[in-house]
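User: Can you fold this complex?
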Amino acid sequence: MDTLVLGLDGGGTKTQLVVAASDGRIVLATAGAGINPMDNSKWRENLEELLLAVSPLHSSIRFAVLGLPGHGEIRAVTDAMDKAVSEYLPIPHRNENDVRVALDGAFLNGPGTLVLAGTGSMVLAKGSEGRITRAGGWGEIFSDEGGAYWIGQLALRRASQALDGRLDAPAFAAALLSEIGAQDRDWHDAMMGWCLSRKHQRSEIATLARFVDRLADKGDETAIAIMTAAAAELTIQLKTAQRLAGHIGQAWSPAGSVFDSSTVMHHMTRMNGPCQPAILTPVGGAVWSALQTAGIQPEDAFAETFTAELVRAFTSP
Amino acid sequence: MDTLVLGLDGGGTKTQLVVAASDGRIVLATAGAGINPMDNSKWRENLEELLLAVSPLHSSIRFAVLGLPGHGEIRAVTDAMDKAVSEYLPIPHRNENDVRVALDGAFLNGPGTLVLAGTGSMVLAKGSEGRITRAGGWGEIFSDEGGAYWIGQLALRRASQALDGRLDAPAFAAALLSEIGAQDRDWHDAMMGWCLSRKHQRSEIATLARFVDRLADKGDETAIAIMTAAAAELTIQLKTAQRLAGHIGQAWSPAGSVFDSSTVMHHMTRMNGPCQPAILTPVGGAVWSALQTAGIQPEDAFAETFTAELVRAFTSP
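Assistant: Here's the predicted assembly.
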C-alpha cells in the first residue's frame, strides 16, 4: 500500500497516464486526447476524464507528477491547469512542463539535453549540478522554430513562392497542391481556403511536415532545404541551451515526430554528434520523478520492466 | 445628370468612398472602418453603412469601381463580397482587388509596378500592353512577406531569441518588452500573453512595425536588419512581377505604411532605383477606372483637382 506513484504526460494530440510501482510494474495505464489549453478548448474535460479513472487508487498513490503542455509559460494558463489538477486529483502532486518530464525520462537523474520537435519545438539542457536551461518553445506565433508547424508553414510559403514565380520549384508546389487535394483549382483559392477552413489549423498545418519529409526522401530539393533548415534551427536551440548550462557537447536525446525524418536526423547528427536514445519515454520520466519525490528507490530493473509494460499497455488490442 | 462615378478603396483598417465628376470635383466623400473579411467579422455592416450614404445619388452615378481587400483570392470571400455590394449598391459596378485600384491610381493608364506594403504585402506589375502580373500577398499564414504583420512577427521572434539566449540583442528585446508594456514581468508570460490577449491580433502585431522602424532610425542593428529584410522581400516580389510582365526595370510606386520607413525606402531605392510617386491615391484609381469604364473623358486638370479636393474632404475638421 501507499507505494505507488502516478505519472502523466500531456501533449498537443495525446495524453498518457500511468500508475506504477517501484519495480516498474504498471498498475493502471490509460490514454486520452491532447490537453494543450493553447489549441484545445476541451483540455479540461479531457484531463478530468483521465484523472477520474485514477480515483479508486488515490489511497495507494504516494505522489504524482504531471507533465502539462504550456505549464510555466503563461501565468493564466499555468494557474488554470494547476486549479484543474487540484480539483480532480486530491493527492500530493507536482505539475511541470511536459518537456521537463521528457527530459527526466530521457536521462533520469543524469545530465543531458532534450531536443523536442513535435508540433512545436523546445530544448532543455540539464547540467551535472541539476540546473536546467531552455531555448525556444514560445509558441507558434513567434517561436517553435524547427517544429512541425514551423515546417508546414514554411512549406506553404515555399509553394506559394513557387506558384507566383518567386521560386523555381514547380514539382514541390504541385506535390503540395495534390497533398491538400487542390490540384485542379485556382491555387491561391485552394491554398488560402485550405488554411482557413481547417478546424484545427495549427495541428493540420503541422501535419504537412510528414509530407515534406516524404518529398525530401524522394530527393526534392525544396523539401530537403526545409527539413535541413529545421535541423539548423533545432541545433541553434540545442547549442544555446548547452552554452547557457555550461555543458557544450553533452549527450542529446531527440523527442517528437520531426525526428522520424531521416533528413533531420542526418543533419542533427552531423552538427551535434550521435544522439542518445531516451532511457524512458516522457510518461516514464513523470513516474521516475514522482518516485524520486516520494523517496521511493526504484528497483534495478525498473526501466526495462516499465518500458516493456508500457509497450504492452498501449499496444494491446 | 448621369455623369458622376463612384470609387471605393477598402483596406484592413479604413475604407474611403468618393463620388466625383469628370473635372475632378468631389460630390461626396465618406470614410469608414476596414472591410477585410479575413480579419473583420463586421466587414458587411461597415460596407453597408458606407454604401447607404450614396443612395440619394444612385440616379446620377453612371458607374462604380470598388477596390476590395482579398477580392479575387478566395472564391467564397469573393462571392460574399460581390453579393454584399450588389445588395447595397443597385447600380452598374465592378469589384476588384484593392491593390488593383491602387495600381490604376498610381499609373492611370500607363505601365508601372505597384509595391504595396501595409499590414500585408503585394506587388502588381502592368506592362505597356495592359497585362497585369502579381507576386505575393497570399495572406499572413504563409505569405505577405515584407508587410507590417510580417515585420511585427519577425520582431517578436528576434526578441524571444534574444531573451532565451539565441541572439545577442538585449537592447532590442528590452525595447520590445517596454513597447508592449511588459518590462517588469516574466518575459515569456508577457510576450505570449500579449499576443494571445490581442483583440485584433493581426493588426496589433502589424503595429509593431512602426516600433521597429523607430528603433532602426536610432541605429539598433536588429531593427535595421528586420527592415532591410522587409525591403529585400518586397524587392523579390517586385522583380518577380516585372520579370513575369516582361518589363524589368519599369517605374515602381510605393503604397502602404511600411514605406513611411526611411530604412525601407533607402534599400528599395538602392535595389530598384528611385520610385515614382502615385499620380492618384487608391480611391482616386477606383474613380479613374470608373470614368474609363463609363466612357467619360476626364478633364485635363482632373488629377490636380481631385487630389486637392480629396485632401480637403478627408482632413477638414
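Residues 4-108+279-315 of chain B form a domain with the Nucleotidyltransferase; domain 5 fold (CATH 3.30.420.40). The interface with chain A takes residues 38, 73-76, 133-136, 138-139, 141-143, 145, 153, 156-157, 159-160, 164-166, 186, 188-189, 191-193, 195-196, 201, 205, 236-237, 240-241, 243-244 of chain B (CB under 8 Å).
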